[in-house]
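Continuing the batch. This is chain 6 of the set; chains 1 through 5 are on the previous pages. Same settings as before, nothing changed between runs. Recording input and output for traceability.
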Amino acid sequence: MAGLLFQAYMKFNPIPLPLPDTFAGQTAVVTGGTSGLGLATAVHLLRLGAAEVIISARDAARGRNAAAHITAEASKGGGGKDDGGRNKKTLGQVRVLELDMNRYDSVVAFAKNVIEVKKGKGGVDVVVLNAGMIGTEYELGPEGWEQNLQTNTLSTTLLAALLLPYMKSERANRRSPAHLTLVGSMRHTDPDINQWHEWAGQEGGGGVLEHLNRPENFGSANDRYASTKLLLEYAFGELVKLARKDGPNNGDGDKGQPQVIMNTVCPGIVKTSLARDYEARGGLGMRVVVAIFQGLFGKSAADGARSYLAAVTTKENQHYKHLMSHIPMPCHIANELTQRVCIRMSERVISSHAGQEMQAQVWGELRHELGAKVPAFKETLLTD
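Output for chain 6:
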């Protein structure tokens, strides 16, 4: 109950936006940029000075419509005193790149396109891997994986792994590190990893990913979403090692200087179409429940996206942070308190001995799957 009351408070007390021109001249990439938090993030970035915002879209027509909307909204203020609307003459551009998170080849092609942006000139400045889903029923994708696992975990991990070496290599051409943010959820603390250890230890069971991939183990949509976000946190915990100056074998352990600042961020409850499957399959009653819940506790997408902006403006000493950036305090204080909260909540599943063992287990399974099917992923790991 206390958590919901806090969310209700946050609905009316959003954190402030970064200063105008914070992203002046920068290039940003936002996946899932045609709706919801991704769309709102793109608008903010353009308003705050970005020279180019690249969004992903599965459908070309939808991408074009989103780009037009972003440009139109960014050219005007949203009504708040810190909205920072920009004159059209100084507005950056929006580019749309195709991305289907259900297909590895699409993820690889998207990464290749991004890598060519400002190559040798500092590369992209900001990447927000926002594309995600909550599918309410079991559905197998073309790569042989349940759709939530594919989108939220496997493809997001793959895209981060493909972009990271490129962003890292551009550090010598930059005054400060670029930012790579993965959208997580505090629901990642929900799963019982004792069960996961049992699945991993079952002879012939195929491990945690294979267990979760079976139709009979789908469970509820909420449980599935939480599991995919914990799997992503485990992948994130390994990828951050690659972001250090000398890679995972840095003699200083976790103290290696980050060449790319990486974070995961939880925006809290936001009124978006993420719950559309609930509404579509639950009928009128579910639509009413979702509307009431979001009306009481959900922030607007524009306010929720501010947490993403907070994540991509963190400093080097905030690398490898799990951020709940929606706390309405000065940013340096918010991040300090947020980190303490996240550490306490995440200790059981991540920083504990059992959590670290499970992270190694899951990372091994992810490496096996992606390395077997995506040659570019294996090459990425060899570079570090």
